Amino acid sequence: MLSPTVVTLGVFNVATATGGGGVQFTNPGRYAVMPQSAATQDFATGTNRATVPDYPFTIGGVASLTARVQAPAAERPAANLRVADLFHMHMRQIEQAEAPRAAAFMQQPRARPPVSLSVQAQQQQAQQVVRDFKVLSSLTTSTYTTVRARLLYSGTNILLYVDSLAPTTGGFSDTEYQSFGRQFDQDLFPIDVNTFGATSDIDSNGKTFVLFTPVVNRLALGSGPCGSYVAGFFNGADLSGNSNANRAEIFYSSVPGEAAGGPTCQPLSLTTVRNSAPATFIHELQHMISFNQHVLVRNAGTEDIWLNEGLSHMAEELGGKLYESRYPCPNLPPCPPQGRGSPAQIFPDSAQGFLPPNFANAYDFFSSRLSYSLTSPTSFGTIEERGVAWLFLRWLIDQKGEPKLGQLVQTRNRGTGNIEAVAGETFRVLFSDFLAATLLDDYPGATPGQIASRYQYTSRNLRAIYARLNTIAPSAYPTAYPLDVADLLTPNRLTPSSLSVSRQMKPGSLDLFQFTSATANTGLTFKPATGTFLATLNP
């Protein structure tokens, strides 16, 4: 029989217990307890959500405890996420399949360019004012559509093209497309390459293409509700010897004035694309850089989906922080009116597409925490799981420093092994301390210095942000904080003979309880419903 971990804690202290022996509290008081499963190995490729096991466990009393327990909110309907999630999965699977071919393609000998590079560049520029692109046009297959597009912006890093069939009614003017080109070229591209590393340059033109095309809008299922659509993407097949490859670095974007998510859905508005296109560009550019650094430079496999997506959402935040710096809000609330359409806003208008979605996704993960996994199987990754991947990396970078982002990309390592190599700690410890930090960050009643910096976010005041979001949008943020013992309202009495709390969680997830002990040396057990924990499961 396993012995319990004996815990003596002061106010806001943290202790970790591993194994199935449970915990014994030597001193009376209130305790927040977070059972968790930190997967130390990534799931197998091809696993689908239906086959990912839920690990049952029970919480029981040793002596007598008062427990506050509440089931997390129900999982958001999958139909609302279906198109975007399905396509993200499809693109990462294409990258995995194309990686060997792309690496081999990069090893092929290349013909030397003509002697006069300047003459060649001038000729190429003249020829490329109008050019054709092959665009992936299916959510689930390798079907491509050829489009003809015209060049509207040529900058230091970016060549921006617009499909000749892009809507003019309800669409952007040439001037606005050119404004996107400058934003991508001068603001966003440098952030990603300076943080994560260089893109490839397989066409030797020194630039990345941006293509706005309604083909992206038309990526849809044959049936299903509207509300989820593909905003844009990077296709790793473009960098391989695939017969449909454009042999160039390309970001594809949706356009306004065209239905998105299905032919019966509403056209995307100008405002929607203005908000989504820049954030989607910097997100997908990280995927492009990751593919180059892992596959083309180091001839390794693609990064695991959960970490690849988390890094791309970190890229979004870095883009948003640029615009926050131009219109700062040092105290929440109120914020200065400059750059904000409403005094209620936390983030300026220019950061709306970059920052609020990440906070929303992380909130939804913790609100439905038993339904999702941080280290999700490699064939899927919902927006909730990408939200917690972003928040985990946000905490990790607060602890270890921003240069670690580049180290996570410029490597042959992948997944949790990549995290461990860069952080110099086991993933189990990092995951546990990340969850403690999320619970304790700016905890009400704590005095300065009372909570160790290890259990804080130094770059964000999460509680202040979520409390404000709860005020602004209570239907989307029904509680002031998504992981708080104050929301555990159902009292239960746990005794050795009454194991009244039985739950299930996925690997890479957690639960939350509060226990109150009136006497010394009480405690709790934590064990599976039958038998013992699997050796590969770290409770």
Structure, explained:
By secondary structure, this protein is α+β, with helices and mostly antiparallel strands. The protein folds into two domains: 84-106 and 123-299, no CATH class; 303-483, no CATH class. It has helices spanning 82-107, 117-127, 174-196, 214-217, 270-297, 305-326, 356-367, 383-400, 403-409, 415-423, 427-440, 462-472; strands at 5-7, 23-25, 29-33, 36-37, 55-62, 65-69, 130-136, 144-154, 158-163, 208-212, 232-234, 250-253, 490-494, 501-505, 509-510, 513-517, 522-527. The strands form four sheets. The chain has a six-stranded mixed β-sheet.
Largest sheet strand order: 7-8-9-10-12-11
| Biggest beta-sheet profile | 6 strands, mixed
Strand content: 15-25%
Query: How helix-rich are the residues, as a percent range?
Result: 25-40%
Overall domain count: 2
Order of secondary-structure elements:
EEEEEEHHEEEHEHEEHHHHHHHHEEEEE
Number of strands: 17
- Compute the CA-based radius of gyration: 25 Å
Rough outline: globular
Distance between the termini: 16 Å
What's the number of helices?
12
Unreliable parts: 74-81, 529-539
